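Hi F.,

I've been meaning to write this up properly since the lab meeting, where we talked about keeping a consistent format for the predictions we share between groups. The idea is simple: the sequence comes first, exactly as it goes in, then the structure tokens exactly as they come out, then a line or two of notes. No screenshots and no reformatting. I'm using this chain as the first example so we have something concrete to point to.
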Amino acid sequence: MTTAYNELYLDDAMNNLGDMVDFAVRDLGYEPDEFFGWFISSGIASRFEKGNPKYISGMSGYELAEAVLNATNISHDIQEPTYIECKGREYWAGWILAYYQWLTNKRFKNIVKDGLTLSSIFSMYILHEADTSKFVDSANEVISRNKEIKKSNLHTIRKARGFTQQELSEASGVSLRMIQLYEQKQNDISKAGAKVVLNLAKALGCDIEDILD
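Output, unedited:
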């Protein structure tokens, strides 16, 4: 498995993401999933997950939170983080999520989209003293379970555009049966030919990555 960036930066990344979440939730009072959504939409998450030294080790967690709020134009009072000797679930949630993202090399937005949200990680705090592999196994189970019950991206976007499967088939040139198999996840759309995915994306007016599960 290819990790997201050099392991030399991992400790800093985990500590900083943990401190960011801890400060945003405990000190500033933001709802965890809402704040993490700002982290993703700010563009800082994409730099962090690629191992940009400025964000994973060049900033403290407090400075990361400030950068997120400034980038998303969220008004907030400037305040110093509260020091506590024993950090709790907020810190751990950010800390272990940074580890999971590094290990799997997944994008934060995809991790969240697949159901591994900060609030769901809070509920897994019982694992905070266990080996990190225990969390990884549990996180993979959460994502696998959510993928089984979640509608495919192709289905969701097709319905949002008002297409029937037949209409999408005619507009894209992709057979009706193939579209059915992709939507039912019996065939993996990420393994489809480039032309097939491109034609579907064009017909739906979206980016290719939007229809990949």
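Notes:
The mean pLDDT is 92.
The two ends are 19 Å apart (CA to CA).

If this format works for you, I'll send the rest the same way.

G.
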